[in-house]
Each structure stands twice: as structure tokens, then as C-alpha cells.
Design a protein that fits this description.
InterPro entries: AB_hydrolase_3, AB_hydrolase_fold, Carboxylest/Gibb_receptor, Lipase_GDXG_put_SER_AS. This is Carboxylesterase 15. 32% of the residues lie in helices and 21% in strands. It contains ten helices and eleven strands. The strands form two sheets. An eight-stranded mixed sheet has the order 4-5-7-6-8-9-10-11, with helices on both faces. Strands 1-2-3 form a three-stranded antiparallel sheet. The longest helix has 19 residues. The two termini are 38 Å apart.
Amino acid sequence: MSSSSAADAPAAADAVEVENCRDVLRVFSDGSIHRTTGPSFTVPVEDDGSIEWDDATFASDLGLRLRLYRPRHRLPTDPGKLPIFYYFHGGGYCIGSRTWPNFHNCCLRLAACLRSVIVSPDYRLAPENRLPAALDDSLTSILWLRAQALSGDPNPLLSDADFSRVYISGDSAGGSIAHHLAVRFSSDEGRSELEPLLVRGYVLLMPFFGGTQRSKSEEYCPSDAFLNLELNDRFWRLSLPVGSTADDPVSNPFGPGGPDLKAVRFDPMLVVVGGRDLLRDRAADYGERLKEWGKPVEVLDFEGQQHGFFTIEPRSEPADRLMSCIRRFMDKNGCGLD
């Protein structure tokens, strides 16, 4: 993650804190920005050694890296080549990293449960790098995979990967990234841009969508929720392009000036929402509207679950069910092919 000079300069003696994102990101009245190197909350890493993983650089000019995961031992039921599953982390476009234990644990589980190569990229964060920087970086990470496929000598953890079975997923802000990539790659031009990669489907995990008009789940979200309205609004203030509102198409898929989603040829998509998530209504409305327009979209509602439940408690029963649902979605959309 790159940072601006404002992030490196100490705050002036009379500067006061004006924005705080989980104590990981602090913005001061003089424009200075302080970031911690650690995560917003600490959880133990649950690595039993069954998954091998390593980091690779995908945008050297920006210092951006990604993490690759692969099952260490093959099972008799594994396909000849393993599918590739992208996971873009969350954090409101302002915080987060592939290295944070909660996201790392999630990817370890994804690799084990989906029997896939997991690709977990970082991207530039706001406010040092406002949107669409994160979207641009995420596209770059996909094109890095294309270059690996064309190289004839890919990263060792991609040596038995199936570049014709790619799935793109993301959690929260990462789910919003997956939406933008689904639109980008929906046209003939977008699909040819990816060749020889073939995207089989998208999985949006509690996507971080916004808008100027409050939804019911936003309006009635309790203040002690993991993602509450105050933090939600702060993330958008810090990440949106200067002068934009939350109806900007980078935030609101149906915002003015955005693509006509009714005309988009979406690939199969799974949209996951949580019953106690502030973002529930926007994500559910997104999925239901696409379904009404005849798009191959499934909406999966986890009643009673809060935002990011599968990274907070990756070994919980709801997280287990989610893994099974994602695997079923993959099997239904190209993963079961020989």
C-alpha cells in the first residue's frame, strides 16, 4: 500500500484528530495522516500447514503485492488443475491488508474448502489514494494473472492452476470491487482483454455499496455493530473522489452517470448478505434488481449474521455453510468440468 507525504509527516502540535478508522487510520486537522502497521483487531492465525502460501509483487511501481494460497497435498477428488479464486479484502477502501490475520485466516479456509488457488491482492488505500485507485489496482492484479498464464513459466503456486476457471470474489469493499470488475469484463472487449483467462463467476460477500438516501438497514443499525453508520459514512468521506457524493457510481451501482446495468451481460453471480449487516438492504436490492432483469444472480441471506462474520469467526457454523454455498456455486458454474 503506498502512502503520500502527508502520511509520513507528523501532525502539528496544535492539530486535532478529525477522522479515526478503528485506530488504524487517523486523520488530523492539518492534513497529516497516521497509520498503524498492525490490524484493527487481533485474532490468532489458524494455519495447520495444509496450505502453502507466498507473496508476489504485481505492481512494482506502486509497491503492491498479493498473496497466493494452494493446498499442499492433493486429494483424490481434486480436479487435474485447480480453479483460481480471487479474494479482495474489505476495509471501506481505507484500511486492511492481505497480511491481516482475519483476512489471512479466511483465505486459508477458502483454499482448503474450495480446493482452489486463492489470490489475495492488496490495493492502494484512501484517503491518500481515493477511488478509483483501488479499482484500478484490482484490475492490474487480474491482468497480472493473465500475464502469468501467457508467460509459460508462472509463479510456482500457479503451476497447476486452471486459468480457464477463474472466480472473482471480495468481502465488503472487496465485494464492491468484484462488482466493478464484473461490469468491466462483461463486454466482448472486456472478455478479450482477459484471454486466455476465463472468468466463470463472481461472489460478492456483503458488498460495500452506498447512496445518499438511507436504507432501512442503515437507519436502524445499532451503534455497537461491527460496521455501524458512523464508520460507514466515515469510510465514504475518506474514499470517494473529492467533490463526489455517495451516489457516485463508484459507490452506488445505480447512481447517475454509471453504466446501464440492465444492458450488462453479467456472468453468474452470488451475492451474500447478512441479516444484521448495515449493508444488507443495499446488497439485497442490488441482487434482486439484477435478477428481475434476467441476470444469472443468486442472493443468499444469512439471517442473524453481522458484517464480515466469516472473517471474524472463520471456523463458525455459518462460515462453514458459506464455504459450502460458494463451492456449490463454483460447481454449478464451470468448476465441475474436466
